């Protein structure tokens, strides 16, 4: 009996230790995001993006991501992009006094293909990333590939559904990085803006995180600002 009790206590302790190594996994966090495609000419546009991620819905900072890029529109269904991102990350659920966040400078190359099947709008996004990480006392350089397939279903002229699945592949060490499964309801506010409210299931090799998402998309046409004034 004593041996059985010791065994049970050992299992409970082991499970609690595993849970402690994955703080915040059971919390419902949130990502608040802005995305913009700013048209500056017939073929060129500027990508702008800001994301603020929290371990809990409105508190406990996890990550800030700022990203920009230059898009070349090959045609209406193909876009090539090169860009840069800065990421500030708190890797722990608990706040520690004097704790230093990790910083990342990231360069990325991207290609998007779009197609339509019946009423379904599909988007395939292929991305390569070169990641320069600073953990304070150490630095690291990593490379990663990402593939996202996205499907949008218009319901009316105003409402739509949006789904995607994105796979992250490490180009060093363990092959699997993470997988993001997303579903949302979208509302078209104007011809070039919409809001999406959805849910993200973010799976890593040793943890799964549930995240609410609120995203604002605004895609202004800025070509008029760059035209020369006629005499």
UniProtKB/TrEMBL annotation:
Superkingdom of source: Bacteria
Asked if the Swiss-Prot or TrEMBL record annotates the protein with the keyword Signal, the reply is yes
KW Signal (keyword) present: yes
Record's protein name:
DUF2490 domain-containing protein
Q: What keywords were assigned to this record?
A: Signal
| Signal peptide (from-to) | 1-20
Pfam families, alphabetized? DUF2490
Q: Which organism is it from?
A: Flagellimonas okinawensis
């Amino acid at each position: 009996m004593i041996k059985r009790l010791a065994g049970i206590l050992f299992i409970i302790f082991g499970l609690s230790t595993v849970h402690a190594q994955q703080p915040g996994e059971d919390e419902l966090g949130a990502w608040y995001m802005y995305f913009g495609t700013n048209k500056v000419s017939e073929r060129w546009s500027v990508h702008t993006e800001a994301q603020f991620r929290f371990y809990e819905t409105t508190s406990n900072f996890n990550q800030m991501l700022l990203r920009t890029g230059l898009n070349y529109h090959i045609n209406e269904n193909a876009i090539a992009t090169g860009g840069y991102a800065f990421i500030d990350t708190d890797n722990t659920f608990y706040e520690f006094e004097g704790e230093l966040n990790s910083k990342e400078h990231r360069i990325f190359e991207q290609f998007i293909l779009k197609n339509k099947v019946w009423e379904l709008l599909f988007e395939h996004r292929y991305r390569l990333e070169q990641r320069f990480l600073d953990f304070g006392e150490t630095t690291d350089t990593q490379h990663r590939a990402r593939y996202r397939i996205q499907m949008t279903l218009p319901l009316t002229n105003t409402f739509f559904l949006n789904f995607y699945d994105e796979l992250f592949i490490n180009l060093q060490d363990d092959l699997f990085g993470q997988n993001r499964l997303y579903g949302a309801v979208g509302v078209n506010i104007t011809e070039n803006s919409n809001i999406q409210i959805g849910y993200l299931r973010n799976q890593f090799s040793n943890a799964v995180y549930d995240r609410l998402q609120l995203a604002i998309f605004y895609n202004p046409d800025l070509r008029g600002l760059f035209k020369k004034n006629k005499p």
